[in-house]
Specification:
The chain is of the alpha/beta class. Helix content is 31%, strand content 26%. It contains 6 helices and 8 strands, in the order H-H-E-E-E-H-E-E-H-E-E-H-H-E. The strands form 2 sheets. A 6-stranded mixed sheet has the order 1-7-6-5-3-4. The chain has a two-stranded antiparallel ribbon with strand order 2-8. The protein is elongated and about 55 Å long. The C terminus is likely disordered.
């Protein structure tokens, strides 16, 4: 096991001189609700294994963990990483913090409670903002920070229960934030890449159509 770990550490040898020059400052990128899917550039290989954690130091309700699962699933399905997830042993670490904020007035919140009390027979609306902050570490050193925010509105109605159960616009917003992160990681090129497989079809970074 120690030999495997040593090999991986050598594979992911990081340019610390470069890392020290990376700016940590970040302004939140506002992401629209229009569905956005980014296909990372694999022509130069995929990113080396990366550890990803979501809200590791925050206590969240069980129902909210589906959002954590969505983030991990989108990163894994992107094909951008040789390996990615919370259990990956790697000196490259993305520490993600997810929060949801409401922009509703007290009156709107009261109507939401009334809607819920009638099992959504009385419709309501909810306007929220997903906020994602990502700290990027290389060998324990914070080298980059990304911030994204996306607003969405949900109509609360018994007739839209199936859509809300699947996440509705909240999950569309969250997927968009993660794909903007993928785009920026692909652009900024500070995560080392594994050599491209000879059998792999090169794919330049682009939007899915």
């Amino acid at each position: 096991m120690s030999t495997m770990r040593a090999n991986r550490q050598r594979l992911i040898r990081l340019p610390l001189a470069f890392a020290g020059t990376v700016l940590l400052g970040a302004c939140a990128t506002t992401v629209p609700l229009t569905p956005f899917q980014y296909l990372p550039d694999t022509s130069k290989g995929v990113f080396v294994p990366v550890r990803v954690t979501v809200n590791r130091d925050r206590s969240v309700p069980d129902f909210y963990r589906t959002r954590h699962d969505l983030i991990q699933a989108e990163l894994a399905a992107s094909g951008a990483f040789a390996e990615v997830g919370p259990e990956v042993d790697s000196p490259v670490w993305l520490d993600i913090r997810l929060a949801r904020h409401t922009v509703d007035s007290a009156g709107t919140v009261a109507r939401q409670l009334l809607s819920a009390a009638t099992l959504f027979l009385i419709p309501g609306t909810a306007r929220n903002i997903n906020q994602v902050e990502v700290d990027c570490y290389l060998q324990g050193r914070l080298v980059r920070r990304y911030e994204y925010a996306g607003a969405y509105e949900e109509r609360l109605s018994i007739y839209r229960y199936a859509e809300l159960k699947d996440g509705g616009e909240e999950f569309v917003s969250l997927r968009n934030l993660i794909h903007h992160l993928l785009r920026d990681l692909d652009r900024d090129e500070f995560i080392p890449r594994s050599p491209a497989s000879p059998d792999a079809s090169p794919r330049a970074g682009r939007l899915a159509t």
